[in-house]
Each structure stands twice: as C-alpha cells, then as structure tokens.
Amino acid sequence: MSELIDRELLLRAFRRLADELRNERVRAELVLAGGAVIALLFDAERVTRDVDGLILQGHGPLTKAAQRIAGELALQRGWLNEGVATYLSTQADPDRTMVFDHPNLVIYAASAEHMLALKARAARAQDLRDLRLLAAKLDVTTVSEVLAIVERFFPADPLKPKALAAVEDLFG
Fold first, then answer.
1. CA separation (Å) from 116 to 41, 53, 79, 112, 134?
2. 31 exposed, middle or buried (CB, 10 Å; 0-12, 13-18, 19+)?
3. First to last CA, the chain
4. Hey, is 5 helix, strand or coil?
5. pLDDT in tens, 122-144
6. Of 74, 111, 141, 144, which cross-links 2 as Cys (Cβ 3.0–4.6 Å)?
7. pTM value?
8. What is the mean pLDDT of the chain?
9. What angle do CA 139, 143, 149 make, to 5 degrees?
10. pLDDT greater than 80 at residue 166
C-alpha cells in the first residue's frame, strides 16, 4: 500500500471516485482540509498520508467507493479520512476553492485562511512549514494577523498556549 499520496495520485483517485459514483447514479460533495489542500493548491511537491475531508453529500456511497478504489490505487483502506471534521470551523468559508468538478463529485478545498487557522491551532512540528507557506500566500507577517484569522474562524476558541508560542516563534 502507498504510504504517501501526491497531487497526481489525488487527482487520479478523485477521477476514480467520480466514475464509481456515476455508475451508481449518485452525487457527492466533499470539503478537503490538511495536506491534500496544500498539495493541490499551494505546493505541487507536497505529499500527504491521507485525504482529510468533510463529506457534505453522498456520505455512504462516497465512503464505499473510496474503500473499493483503495486497493486498485494502492491506497490505505482509510485514505479518505473524516477525522478532520471535528477540527473544521463552523463559520462560513466563502473563499473555499473548487478543486474537482464532475457531475457526480464536487470537491472543494478549505480556503487559505481557514487552512492557516487550522494549522495555527494544531501547531504540530509538521504544520509549521505549511503555516509559513500559507502565511506567505496570504501576505500575513505578524502574530496579530494570524490571531485575527484564527479569531475569524474560531471566535470562541483562542489558541492554546503551545500553539500561541509556536505562532509567536514564527511571526514574532
């Protein structure tokens, strides 16, 4: 099984998912976050271990299709991971980007701002490179700018001390 998923494999997997859903005459929608968004929109060399997403429509058929194509594409069985759903903001994300458009499958990527807020909140060692990349994309250079974006997406949940310290180290 493939340990890493690159941009090319992501797009191939999305095409196969769309084919499977077309065969079932089902439409699904998905919002991506995490490394898949970075690979698709900001860093073509980026790889990820799984595809973090929130299924908006067609949950059952989409998850079954993902399981069916996993072996075919040498992906781990749980390559489409909904665990990120608990971390996504409930605030509107009007700047999310459509990254795959098919009559049976539409996939959006969380906006750069939403991604920056998520990466700042997580602030794990592996998130810091992405945080720098997203900040550069957004022309964010200060702690206060990062905190304003986090506040926009998570108004009632400020950064934990460890995450704040990481943001201060990067932008202070």
1. 13, 16, 23, 6, 6
2. buried
3. 42
4. strand
5. 999 989 999 999 999 999 999 99
6. 74
7. 0.93
8. 95
9. 65
10. yes
Cα angle for residues 115, 82, 53 (degrees, 5° grid): 40
**pLDDT given at position 7:** 95
Say if CB 92 and CB 155 are below 8 A apart. no
Contact 2, 9 (CB under 8 A): yes
Tokens (6 digits) for 128: 């810091």
What confidence score (pLDDT) does residue 126 get? 87
3-class SS letters over 20-60:
HHHHHCCCEEEEEECHHHHHHHHCCCCCECCEEEEEEECHH
- List of residues 6+ apart from 159 with CB closer than 8 A: 120, 121, 123, 147, 150, 167
The residues near 20 (Cβ < 8 Å, ≥ 6 apart) are: 65, 68, 69
Q: For residue range 33-54, what is the model confidence (pLDDT) as tens digits?
A: 999 999 999 998 999 999 999 9
What is the average pLDDT across 82-102? 94
- pLDDT exceeds cutoff 90 at 3: no
- The per-residue pLDDT for 1 is 58
Q: Are strands 80-81 and 51-57 parallel, antiparallel or unpaired?
A: parallel
The DSSP string of 65-127 is HHHHHHHHTT--TT-EE-GGGGTS-SS--TT-EEEEEETTEEEEE--HHHHHHHHHHH--HHH
